[in-house]
Design brief:
The structure holds 2 protein chains of 2 kinds. Chain A contains 10 helices and 7 strands. By secondary structure, chain A is an alpha+beta fold. A 5-stranded mixed sheet of chain B has the order 2-33-34-35-36, with no helix packed on it. Classes of the chains: A alpha+beta, B mainly beta.
Chain lengths: 272, 541
């Protein structure tokens, strides 16, 4: 459902502009690149966005990919996936993998989107008025109610970042690391409300759950663990986010500044 | 209650207000572990804050809910299985109701001690091609303030946020391509993280490091193979010091009052052919006492000068205050891989006593200064010489335990365990194996393992408990009159600490090659041990 939203909503503008570009250069688009595009849309776009702008998976529309500097590395990642992460291995033949890889490279040759905002003003908003540090971490500093933002600039396109600030509930992201597979959880940052038998209520995001127990992180960053048998109420607010929308809190310029700051966070991916 | 817990005065996020219940079922309710808390960790036995539980290395707990009277009822509370294949050697930390473990590198996981469920997990792709003798194992973490410290197999020090496992910083300790690796649990001392190194089979130049806990900046490095200018320089012939080994791969201990750090060093490189490094080879196979602020050497003692049998002194040096000949002394004791039990004055380093704790064939005894008097045929030869103890030693890295209340030192040892040691020629090449020899087992010999209880100051045997197979398990003793340990067959068991009588056992189904711990979960005592690729946790019904 979230992916649908991405494709039909936010990505529409993205899709449009890239379509236009595509059409103008359609004649130049060789049959093999077209095949790559078709394969990409079928096998990759659900996670990386139709234009490579990022979704569950990171932005691929970059001139150089952090972990796929060479074509050989890129093909190897597509073939083998990234173990312990949400990046699956591909069952495609090696010819088809080469086609997809070419298309991924093609996405990276598109003109880089210009970000209007000011990075240092954005950083101030992040640290100050935005209250972002109450819920996010950069380099492990801050709180872990929302996703780590250390390398968000690599993982998300500027459009996606803007959406995250204006409409946090448009897409509740999966975290990147092996966390998902590891904890056998389908989603993270699931907003949870619950009440214990002795009448105490709790609110937070789920960190783990099994048939008998649930663990949540409250807005003070404290982790709580409950056996479900001890609860009288348990609500999972799917599609809801504790992150407030900043649409009314910030001016359009301030949103630009925040987006510029977030876009500049390209973390330590390279050191991995 | 620690004053540094997460503040209750946290500003409500902008535009957002929701009432949050303040208490109840909170895990890790005291998430900041100050140096002061670690220093006085004996006052909070519900937690397990350092590798050995306390700076003194006793691995003893004052908890007694589980005791000789009820231990027979002990049953599993939960089991955590790693998603990665491979044995776990981690010694967990416990803070509040959260256990922190390392799994086959590079994974750090936080577990809810009540339900056994993971709360977060930090992982990164395993480094490939790290040269190491004994596989990608890891022995655990250090905690200081609100961060955990983890050493990766490819020799990086990481700081992780204690509450989320998110990476704060990482620094390179050494280049793994040159044969350096890390398996040791770091030790937090004051504002520094003390870090040891592995690679004794690869011609590394060993060292012990300290890093600023906040920034990751290196504060000092002590080379365990000294260079020109050091008084001990020249104990490796020629240039052989440059590839002289002496790694530091078992977590040491610390005396806050004396401000002294105690750390054992490993074998000189190459392992078996001493002709390639004539001399005593300081500071290999030694116990070092260092100033933790500066890394300056206060004293040293070499157990096995010019070792050729890989008898690393990488065992936890246990700090003991006890009477010797009627005089109260500050001691450091160590049951060494070479088969001797050593007692030293930990202030001056003066040798007090050394006695064999297993039958050995390499030394006629120790002289008045503690230096071994070599027996004939105790060196490797090209054909191989039968020497006792064998390669993995009389004991090894797994922790002993000391119960100050009864003055007994508990250790897992191996007997009837010899090997033919042989030597070969070898040339050093960075990152390549540099052992210059090897070992062969004795046909038909079946070594066995014994838990021994020694009088801490004399090394006299008080009782022993015999098992099959090789020694591998560390020991935790408790004020419940018990000691817990495990073995290669997968048995985890409790012995009566005074008599050595077995009182309870459980078959985990995986080999135990790790140290047990004990702590409280929601006020209830639990005992935990890594076995196979899992963590097993036990409690009373």
């Amino acid at each position: 459902m979230l992916i649908v939203l991405l494709q039909s909503g936010v990505a529409v503008c993205h899709g449009k502009s890239s379509d236009e570009r595509e059409q103008s250069g359609a004649a130049a688009l060789s049959a093999s690149l077209q095949e790559g595009q078709t394969l990409y849309l079928a096998h990759c776009s659900a996670c990386h966005g139709p234009g490579g702008e990022g979704g569950k998976g990171p932005t691929l529309a970059l001139p150089s990919l952090p972990r796929a500097g060479t074509d050989e590395q890129l093909r190897r990642i597509i073939r083998g996936g990234i173990s312990g992460s949400g990046m699956p291995r591909s069952e495609l033949s090696s010819e088809k993998i080469a086609r997809v890889a070419d298309w991924v490279r093609h996405l990276g040759t598109r003109p880089v989107e210009k970000i209007p905002g000011d990075i240092s003003s954005g950083r101030k908003l992040y640290q100050g008025r935005g209250g972002c540090v109450q819920c996010h971490t950069i380099d492990g500093i801050g709180k872990a109610i929302g996703p780590d933002l250390t390398d968000i600039g690599l993982r998300r396109s500027p459009d996606y970042l803007r959406m995250a600030l204006l409409e946090p509930e448009a897409d509740i992201p999966q975290t990147y690391s092996g966390y998902n597979r590891y904890l056998s959880l389908r989603e993270n940052f699931l907003q949870v409300r619950l009440v214990t038998q002795d009448g105490r209520s709790f609110f937070g995001v789920r960190v783990n759950e099994d048939t008998f127990s649930i663990q949540i992180r409250d807005l003070e960053n404290q982790i709580h663990s409950f056996y479900k048998a001890e609860l009288t109420e348990l609500h999972k607010d799917r599609g809801k986010s504790p992150m407030p929308s900043y649409r009314d809190a910030f001016t359009a310029n301030e949103i630009d500044d925040l987006v510029a700051f977030l876009h500049s966070l390209i973390g330590r991916r390279t050191s991995r | 209650m620690n004053p540094c817990t997460f503040s209750r005065s946290l500003p409500v996020p902008l535009l957002f207000a929701i009432s949050v219940a303040a208490v109840g079922d909170i895990l890790a309710s005291e998430p900041e572990v100050s140096y002061e808390r670690i220093r006085s960790s004996n006052t909070e036995p519900g937690n397990w804050l350092t590798y050995s539980g306390q700076y003194n290395g006793h691995r003893h707990s004052s908890l007694s809910q589980i005791n000789t009277g009820n231990v027979f009822q002990l049953k599993p509370a939960w089991v955590y299985q790693s998603r990665e294949a491979g044995k776990i050697e981690t010694s967990p930390l416990v803070i509040g109701d959260v256990m922190y473990i390392t799994e086959k590198p590079h994974i750090v996981t936080a577990l809810d001690t009540r339900t056994g469920r993971p709360l977060w997990c930090y992982r990164r792709p395993p480094a490939e091609g790290v040269p190491a003798c004994c596989g990608p194992v890891n022995r655990g973490l250090a905690v200081l303030e609100d961060a955990l410290y983890h050493l990766t197999f490819d020799a990086k020090l990481l700081a992780l946020d204690l509450q989320s496992g998110r990476l704060r910083w990482e620094v390179s300790v050494a280049d793994y391509r040159d044969g350096y690796s890390c398996t040791v649990a770091p030790l937090a001392v004051k504002d520094k993280i003390i870090v040891g190194i592995s690679g004794g089979e690869f011609g590394i130049r060993g060292f012990l490091d300290a890093y600023d806990a906040r920034t990751g900046e290196r504060a000092w490095r002590f080379y365990t193979v000294p260079g020109p200018g050091d008084p001990a320089f020249g104990t490796y012939e020629g240039d052989s010091w440059m590839t002289g080994g002496a790694p530091t791969w078992v977590t040491g201990t610390f005396d806050p009052e004396l401000n002294m750090l105690y750390w054992g060093t490993g074998n000189p490189s190459p392992d078996y052919n001493g002709d390639l490094r004539k001399g005593d080879n300081l500071y290999s196979c030694s116990l070092l006492a260092l100033d933790p602020d500066t890394g300056k050497l206060r004293w040293h003692f070499q157990h096995t000068p010019h070792d050729t049998r890989d008898w690393a002194s990488c065992q936890v040096p246990v700090l003991v205050d006890a009477q010797v000949d009627g005089v109260p002394r500050k001691l450091v004791v160590q049951a060494n891989r070479n088969g001797f039990y050593y007692v030293h004055d930990r202030v001056t380093g003066a040798f007090v006593r050394g006695v064999p704790f297993i039958p050995q064939t390499w030394a006629k005894g120790l002289d008045a200064a503690g230096r071994p008097i070599p027996a004939p045929h105790s060196e490797p030869t090209p054909e191989g010489n039968l020497i006792y103890p064998g390669l993995s030693g009389a004991t090894n890295w797994f922790s002993p335990s000391y119960d100050a209340a009864n003055g007994l030192f508990y250790v897992q040892a191996q007997e009837e365990y010899g090997m033919y040691y042989y030597k070969m020629e070898a040339a050093y090449s960075p990152g390549r194996n540099f052992e210059a020899g090897g070992t062969r087992p004795v046909a038909g010999e079946e070594p066995f393992t014994i838990v021994k209880a020694l009088d801490v100051t004399t090394g006299t045997l008080r009782w022993q408990f015999r098992m099959e197979g090789e020694a591998r398990g560390g020991i935790v003793s408790t004020a419940g009159g018990l000691l817990f340990t495990g073995n290669a067959e997968g048995a985890f068991f409790a012995l009566d600490a005074v008599t050595g009588k077995p009182l309870w056992h459980f078959q985990t189904g995986g080999q135990i090659w790790a140290n047990p711990i004990t702590y409280l979960s929601g006020g209830k005592q639990q005992v935990a041990i890594a076995a196979g690729q899992g963590i097993f946790v036990f409690e009373l019904p």
